[in-house]
Amino acid sequence: MTGHAWLLLLTLAVAIGVLVLLINSRLRFHPFVALMAVSVGVALVAGLSTEEIAESLEKGAGGILGDVGITLAFGAMLGRLLANSGATERIARVIVDRAGTRSLPWYMAGAAFVIGIPMFFEIGLIVLLPLIFSVARRLQESGQVKGSPYVFLAAPTIAALCTLHGMVPPHPGPLIGVEGLHADLGTTILVGLVCAVPTIVLSGPVYGRWIAPRLAVHPDRELVAQFTGTTAETDSRTETDSRTETDPGTGSGSGAGAGAARAGAGTADAGTGTAGGGSRAGGVPLGWALAAVLVPVVLMLLRTVAELALSEGSPLRHVLTFTGEPVVAMFAGFLFALFALGYRSGQPPEKVRESLTDSIKSVAGILLIIAGGGAFNQVLEDTGIGKAIESAATGAHLNLLLLGWLIALVLSFSTGSATVGIVAATGILGPMVGHGGGVESSLLVVAIGAGSIGLNYVNHAGFWLVKESFGMTLGQATKSHTAIQTLVSVCGLLMALLLSVFV
User: Fold this and answer.
1) Which of 26, 115, 301, 329 is disulfide-compatible with 296, CB 3.0–4.6 A?
2) Separation between Cα atoms, residue 292 and residue 345, nearest integer Å
């Protein structure tokens, strides 16, 4: 390697350090602002002209928003329609109502798996909280579960939601990886699902069954009463009875998060319409609910099947290739849900439109971070830093899957943003993949996504959502939420490494 290449690598190392500092220092820069500032600084140090810097920023940010941003917006609106109509609760209750006590964690994982396909982690958890609380309270009254029934059911839910959020398209993180690493979308979905299933099993039901007897977690009784339709006094008696069977020295910490948890319950009531008894859920036909969830995924998979099985001149292949584009597939899924669930729910069209507008507002910050990441990645490419990374990694014989996982893990943990971890890791490793398209590129997408999930701690919003919703102490949240997501991260990497042996 030349001296200039080493200088570029040093520039990248300093840039990552500055990025972490800007986000975590007293300045508390928004990740989007930090990414843009670092991108300009790297471009100046690397010697790009002012015209080239502006062009690089516009090309990077605009390109990734065109590919991922619109898809993310449609996904957010689709998720809101599913929640507001009660479709997600309908699916979850049909699945869980078929389960016995021992099989409940597996059925909860299955419900979260289906619901997690179109929904962000936080939204999916809020939608499922009424179901978790009502079933857990029933288990608490029966005394059939050792320890906390809330952890018993929350563990598989968290594992399934975060696995899909980080490792399986059409979630924004994996879509960023697909775009930046030139991976085939359908192949990535299939590879992601293959890696996700054993990951969820080990990190969810298996770990949940082990950790539940060791944690005395009892959510705020007013919050439980609101979700389950019972009185706070009744729930208080049930909670007192259950506490006599657990270690009183562990503490639940429910009082610390009561205010925030009640606020979250209010959001669930107003935004999803699923709290309490879920009155609207019973009116949604199960077939319509499942179809709305699966339409985008099926269209994307059909595209891959068509490209493998049909000739290039086949009219059907052209149609399926078009409908399987992420933007088109998510648009089709959104339109289906809009007419099948939105307008059929009985809400006035104005209310539906207001709800969809709010759903887009909720992902505006993520869209900006994605844009900043795209600008950063383009600067790395235009300055030649990507080539320098490729040369260094080739000489050191580093495993790309492990390297991508580690970069995403460190940056996600240090910045508090999984999106930052994914976009940075994708930009750094993109030049090493070339044009991609093979299974190797899809495995790298999964490995990077898995890395972004691990070590989810106090600087992540999801950590606080889980802690406050379930009334956990900081230690309990670490042993449950942080441990589950780190297990998901490690298992996802191991599955990717295992599959790479056979390709």
Assistant:
1) 329
2) 14
